[in-house]
Amino acid sequence: MKSMLASAPILAAALLLGTSAHAQDVSAGERSFNKCRACHQLGETAKTTIGPVLNGLFGRSSGSVEGYSYSPANKAAGLTWDDAVFADYIKDPKAKMPGTKMIFVGIKNEQEIKDLTAYLKQFDKDGKKL
User: Fold this and answer.
1) CB 121 within 8 Å of CB 128
2) Is the residue at 5 inside a domain?
3) How large is the greatest C-alpha to C-alpha distance in the chain, in angstroms?
4) Which of 39, 97, 114, 116 gives 51 a disulfide partner, CB atoms 3.0 to 4.6 angstroms apart?
């Protein structure tokens, strides 16, 4: 019994460390966003370029950024961007949305997707960090 009690703090610490390894890492997400930066912008000075701005992405409907010329597939997709939809999309955009004009090989790593999601979620619709 004493050995079980003595090992309880070690077990608790191991559980805490194990879960923190899977937490979202905003800094890693910012590095991951470098893959997106060629086409997308974020922040208060963001502008639509090759792709639409990604400010306020989560909760937004697909194909809805004013001033961006979306593909018919994107306009008709009827998606609302949330964690699950974004994760599915960013793995393989052309598979999730056949006919999209987004040319991107995708991000397959689940942790990288979570980190990127955490980074994107920092920006409200006006590009201000929350």
Assistant:
1) no
2) no
3) 68
4) 39
